[in-house]
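hey can u check if this looks right to u? its 363 residues, i copy pasted from the old doc so theres a chance i mangled smth
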Amino acid sequence: MPHPLSGADLGTLAAAVARAGVPGKPLALAAIFGSVVGRLPFSVAERLLIEKSLPREEDLEPPVFILGHWRSGTTHLYNAMCKSGAWSYVPPLATGLPWDMFGIGRAFRPMLERALPEHRYIDNIPVTPESPQEDEIALANMTPLSFYHGIYFPAKFDEFLNRGVFFDGCTSAEIAGWRSRFIYLLRKLSKLQDGRRLLIKNPVYTARLSMLREIFPRAKFVHIARNPYDVFQSMRNFYRKLFAEFALQSYDHIDIDETVFSVYERMMTALAADSRGLATPDFVELRYEELDRDGLSALEKIYRSLDLAGFDAARGVFERYLASVKQFEKNRFDYSAEDAKKVEARLGRFIEQGRYRRPGAAA
């Protein structure tokens, strides 16, 4: 697995490369194509053999979705909720090999698990064979519509980003294709984990609440929000780390600050419009500070607000997990007055709405 795209199907990879142009790392791309072509007969066989045993879309229990802009605490919340053992989620194996999770993925699982990084590329959160993952990397291996293709092929970064997050310029057929692959992935995840209710975390879905409600009218949603000042600084690190690790083309031309601002504005505006009128037991909002300060109370708030069963039974598991990460070393970033002014100029209305303060400002 020389690159995350090594788990793609041939059509998805070919479409991404056709849109991206010539990569700056042809040997890496050749290795990716080699992996994709080598897996092809196994991937096709798995799809043919597994289809009849998968649950139908209408038989899936309505999922619970964790929403929130990247770097807002979605991963911490996802990790904590999954500790109950009551959910189907996205494990690393399904992230890297969504087409092969029942076949060669299982056969090579020990080797793949040994190859997992010790922690995530963007922060110090540990990665284990059971670590819950967002489904976006899996979908980047299943459909041309993923913002991760912009990370992999930065020459067309803006185009991949806007198509993959907001469906800008996409045809109805392209969107229907994404939807079909998304549901197929959820059906496989449900079977992989014995039909338990799906808990899905993906920051991209913060801009797609309306679409998710069309697909799953009885789905429930948690939105976690964080101080925009902190999100901005952390997103700079997010992009720099991911480009350095996964880009197959030069990314020097990308204005990371502008990307963070423009996506944040569009995403949070879309969420506000799509969630208007939504309330418990279908939708609950949480601040990152609540989760950071008293994680158990935050989890109880989510379970009670959404009428989710199992909090009392899992209380002890939650307490032990939260205690184990209490001393987790968060990324720390210097914050200049210049950066603060940039954030205020672009995201001032969100700062005002959330009554957030500059880092270091007096209470």
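The first helix runs from residue 10 to 20.
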